[in-house]
């Protein structure tokens, strides 16, 4: 299997700098062989790529792109914690929070923006458990937030 960052390059993507926390927390923490990320927002070059509620202000397609950006930001936080994404042995769980209008029920499809990226980058070890949760509001009026748990060597 090729290196995870080579897979990202093949997809036309690259890891961003680790997003600076917007409150009192760290982007990722390792305990034993697990790395937990804090919730990652869809920040690209320091700016949210969309704001508002999915199903009202933000389309499901844009929200899925936001989920992918959250996933990239989570991977950047993991890499900063462990040094090399090649040390990831399993993507264990992803949790996607989707700020949704009251009638929007497509949270799983939005979360696929993150889940599909993990599969494309890590192959079989990128298959993971997941929750996709609709919420009324997220920090900075972000439409999506993703947190990640990975197992490392």
UniProtKB/TrEMBL annotation:
Annotated Gene3D superfamilies: RutC-like (3.30.1330.40)
InterPro entries the record matches: Endoribo_LPSP/chorism_mut-like, RutC-like_sf
Pfam families, per database record: YjgF_endoribonc (PF14588)
Domain spans labelled Endoribonuclease L-PSP/chorismate mutase-like: 6-151
Superkingdom of this protein's organism: Bacteria
Protein name: Enamine deaminase RidA (YjgF/YER057c/UK114 family)
């Amino acid at each position: 299997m090729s290196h995870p960052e080579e897979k990202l390059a093949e997809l036309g993507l690259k890891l961003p700098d680790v997003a600076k926390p917007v409150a009192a927390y760290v982007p990722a923490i390792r305990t034993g062989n697990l790395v937990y990320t804090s919730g990652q927002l869809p920040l690209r070059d320091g700016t949210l790529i969309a704001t508002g509620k999915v199903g009202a202000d933000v389309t499901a397609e844009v929200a899925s792109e936001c989920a992918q950006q959250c996933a990239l930001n989570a991977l950047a936080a993991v890499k900063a914690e462990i040094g090399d994404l090649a040390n990831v042995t399993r993507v264990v769980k992803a949790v996607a929070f989707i700020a949704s209008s009251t009638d929007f029920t497509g949270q799983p499809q939005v979360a696929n923006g993150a889940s599909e990226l993990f599969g494309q980058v890590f192959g079989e070890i990128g298959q993971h458990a997941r929750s996709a949760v609709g919420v009324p509001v997220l920090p900075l009026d972000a439409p999506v937030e993703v947190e990640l748990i990975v197992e490392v060597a």
